Amino acid sequence: QHPMFESHRMLVVVPPFSIPTADAYRWLEEDRTRGGVNQPGKVPPLPPITGIPDSQEDVRASLDKSTFNDFESVVEARHPEIRAIREELRSKGALVARLAGSGSCVFGLFGDLPPASLDLDFKADLLPTRISSRVVQVEVLE
Known about the structure:
The chain is globular, with a radius of gyration of 16 Å. Strands 2-3-1-4 form a four-stranded antiparallel sheet. Helix 3 crosses helix 4. It has four helices and four strands, in the order βααααβββ. It is an alpha+beta fold. The protein starts with 8 loop residues before the first strand and ends in a 12-residue tail after the last strand.
């Protein structure tokens, strides 16, 4: 686990609708065919996150520059409520808010506890969680 993330918490937002993965990939391909922002070669590679920033604003700036999701623009064009969720998470203190995979879930990374109990202006299930550096197998009891 990178030291930058040791004390950070995540909030996963699950909207009341789903986005079929096949649709998201089709939208991405259509955008690339039209020469949109997701044209192959137009998106720079992810730079590595190095060093430990001095402040939360440094963390936010670093994450904004080093994280992206190709699906965001095409999914948000068809589901603007996803953009609204990301913007609200940012306004409530998320250092970064991104679409998870091809959607519809969104995650926010917070320096402190996520705003699970805050009054958010959207309807969705909220799943507070944290970043893990490893996955541990859980024993299933029968």
